[in-house]
Write a structure and sequence with these properties.
By secondary structure, the chain is of the alpha/beta class. About 30% of the residues lie in helices and about 35% in strands. Helix 3 crosses helix 4. It is globular and about 75 Å long. The structure holds adenosine-5'-triphosphate (ATP), 1-O-pyrophosphono-5-O-phosphono-alpha-D-ribofuranose and magnesium ion (MG). InterPro entries: ATP-PRT_HisG_long, ATP_PRibTrfase_cat, ATP_PRibTrfase_CS, ATP_PRibTrfase_HisG, HisG_C, N-reg_PII-like_a/b, N-reg_PII/ATP_PRibTrfase_C.
C-alpha cells in the first residue's frame, strides 16, 4: 500500500486535499483525522504538519508527500521534487525596515530573523555573507520592531503583511516556491514495490493540472483556412478536424491553454471561424 503524506494544516492543506480528491482519491471529512485509508486505490494518507513531511519522506517512513518547495529545501533531507503542483505559490525574500537595506551584501554582521533557517544559512554561505540567524516560529515581520533582528527572510505572497509592518523587500528573491510532490532520494529511493503506484499518482495529478490549465475549444471554419487556424490551436498532439454537412466547412476541436482562451477566440474569429465554443475539461490523462 502506498503511504502518502498530506499537509494537515496551514496554507497547503485545503488545496492539497482538493487536488487529491480531484485526482480520484478519498480524502478525510474531519480535519482532526490523522490517518485515512483509501481501499479502492490501495493508498494510505497521513495528515502531518507540512514542515515535518519532508522529514518523514526523507527517512523513508512514508513513500511520497505534498509540501512546499521552501519547506523541502529548509529540511535538508534526502528527498527530491517529483512534480510541481501549481498552488501555494510564494517567494522567499529578504525584507527590512523601509529604506534600511538595498542589497544582500549589507547583511554582513547583521541579525536575520526567519522560520526557514536551513534555507537561509545555505543561501548566505553560498554568497559568503556572515550574519547571525535568529530562528522564529512565525510572525517574523514583528521581530525587527521588537528588537531581536535587523532584517528578516520570510515567505511573501501579496506583500500585505510586510507593508503593514513598515517593511520592504530587498535583494533578489531567495527562492520561488509552490506546493510540490516529493519522494525519497536516499538509498533505494521510495520503498520497494511502490514505483508503479507512484507513477499512477503522478499521472493522476498531472491530469488534474492539465484539466485546470486547459480548456477544450470547438469551432467551424472554411476548409481552405484550416491550416492557418491549426497554427492558432495546435493542441497537444494535433487538432481533431471533422467534416461538416456543408463540404466547404470543417469542425475543429483542440485543447487550448485556459489563460489564452480569449486571445485565441478573437484571432480565430478574425480569421473567419464561427460557432467558437469553449468547454472545461473535467478530467484527463495526457
Ligand atoms: N501567504 C502564505 N503564508 C505562508 N505560507 C504560504 C503562503 N502562501 C504560500 N505559502 C506556502 O505554504 C507553506 C507553509 O505552510 P505552513 O502550513 O507551514 O505555514 P502557514 O500556512 O503559514 O501555517 P501556520 O503558520 O498557520 O502554521 C510554504 O511552502 C509556503 O511557501
Ligand atoms: O505576503 P502576504 O500575502 O502578506 O503573506 C505572507 C505572510 O503570510 C504568512 O504568515 P502567516 O499568516 O502564516 O503567519 P505566521 O507568520 O505566523 O506563519 C507568512 O509567514 C508571511 O508573514
Ligand atoms: Mg505561517
Amino acid at each position: 500500500m502506498l503511504r502518502v503524506a498530506v499537509p494537515n494544516k496551514g496554507s497547503l492543506s485545503e488545496a492539497a486535499s482538493a487536488m487529491l480528491s480531484e485526482a480520484g482519491y478519498r480524502q478525510r471529512r474531519d480535519t482532526r483525522e490523522l490517518v485515512m485509508i483509501d481501499p479502492d486505490n490501495d493508498i494510505e494518507f497521513f495528515f502531518l504538519r507540512p514542515r515535518d513531511i519532508a522529514v518523514y519522506v526523507g527517512q523513508g517512513t512514508l513513500d511520497v508527500g505534498i509540501t512546499g518547495r521552501d519547506l523541502l529545501l529548509d529540511a535538508q533531507v534526502e528527498a527530491e521534487e517529483l512534480l510541481p503542483l501549481g498552488f501555494a505559490a510564494s517567494t522567499f525574500r529578504f525584507a527590512g525596515p523601509v529604506g534600511d537595506f538595498s542589497g544582500v551584501d549589507q547583511l554582513e554582521g547583521k541579525r536575520l530573523a526567519t522560520s526557514y533557517d536551513g534555507l537561509l544559512r545555505v543561501y548566505l554561505a553560498e554568497r559568503g555573507v556572515k550574519a547571525k540567524v535568529v530562528r522564529l516560529d512565525g510572525a517574523v515581520e514583528s521581530s525587527v520592531r521588537l528588537g531581536v533582528a535587523d532584517a528578516i527572510a520570510d515567505v511573501v505572497e501579496t506583500g500585505n503583511t510586510l507593508k503593514a509592518a513598515g517593511m520592504e523587500i530587498f535583494g533578489e528573491p531567495i527562492l520561488k516556491s509552490e506546493a510540490v510532490l516529493i519522494r525519497r532520494t536516499g538509498e533505494g529511493g521510495a520503498a520497494n514495490g511502490t514505483a508503479k503506484e507512484i507513477e499512477v499518482l503522478i499521472r493522476r495529478l498531472q491530469g488534474v493540472l492539465v484539466a485546470r490549465q486547459y480548456v477544450l475549444m470547438d469551432y467551424d471554419i472554411r476548409k481552405d483556412l484550416v491550416e492557418e487556424a491549426a497554427t492558432l490551436t495546435p493542441g497537444l498532439e494535433s487538432p481533431t478536424v471533422s467534416p461538416l454537412r456543408d463540404s466547404d466547412w470543417v469542425a475543429v476541436r483542440s485543447m487550448v491553454p485556459k489563460r489564452e482562451t480569449n486571445r485565441i477566440m478573437d484571432e480565430l474569429y478574425d480569421l473567419g471561424a464561427r460557432a467558437i465554443l469553449v468547454s472545461s475539461i473535467h478530467a484527463c490523462r495526457i
